[in-house]
Design brief:
Layout (H helix, E strand, L loop, with lengths): L2 H6 L15 H10 L7 E4 L15 E4 L17 E4 L6 H11 L2 E7 L5 H9 L2 E9 L8 E8 L38
Parallel strand pairs: 1-2, 1-3, 3-4
Antiparallel strand pairs: 4-6, 5-6
Length: about 190
């Protein structure tokens, strides 16, 4: 394991938490992608030090921050947009609450958080990924995406319903595993 990836791996940190303060360039790109207008109600669901909240353009804004006694999960009012960098340890619960109070959200997602399962969940509930921006934050683990999702909009990304299995035996054989070639069916040896 390289020194950089070891330092960015949560199990190697002095305090294994999922609080990642968002660098200002990432915040500003997410705000730009969200097309915020003055008539919109915008929620920063995990304010932290306020990088999102303090840089929002003129709009009706609110925030939640559990360390300041305002838990996102207690927020029940509908808003036009939720924008922020949610804690990755509770993504599924976070997404469920998000889609219950808005029709548009822009979240920072790590490559391990933008999964086919989560995309299936959002697609099944009528959500489309309408904008996506790929970036690398040098001191974060892996690639990062800024993702804008909108209810009732067509998605720019599709997701397969199930994994592709061996096209020769039509099963999940040992092809490409345990020393078997990726180009040959392990059952036909």
């Amino acid at each position: 394991m390289s020194k950089t990836s070891k330092n960015n791996n949560i199990k190697w940190r002095k305090v294994a938490n999922d609080v990642f303060l968002t660098p200002l360039p990432v915040v500003l790109k997410a705000i730009e992608m969200s097309n915020i207008t003055p008539d919109m109600t915008v929620l920063d669901p995990c304010k932290g030090t306020g990088n999102f909240y303090n840089n929002l353009p003129p709009c009706k804004k609110d925030w939640a921050e559990i360390t300041e006694g305002k838990d996102f999960f207690d927020f029940k009012e509908r808003v036009n947009l939720i924008i922020g960098n949610p804690p990755f340890s509770i993504w599924n619960k976070w997404l469920e609450h998000t889609i219950s109070i808005t029709d548009k959200f822009c979240y920072i997602m790590g490559q391990q958080n933008l999964t086919d399962r989560r995309l299936h969940f959002l697609h099944a509930n009528g959500w489309g990924l309408t904008k996506m921006y790929l970036l690398q934050v040098d001191f974060w683990f892996g690639r990062t995406y800024i993702c804008l999702f909108e209810k009732g909009k067509e998605s720019i990304i599709g997701v397969a319903d199930k994994p592709i299995v061996c096209d020769i035996c039509n099963t999940k054989c040992e092809r490409g595993r345990k020393g078997n070639s990726v180009n040959e069916c392990s059952k036909n040896k």
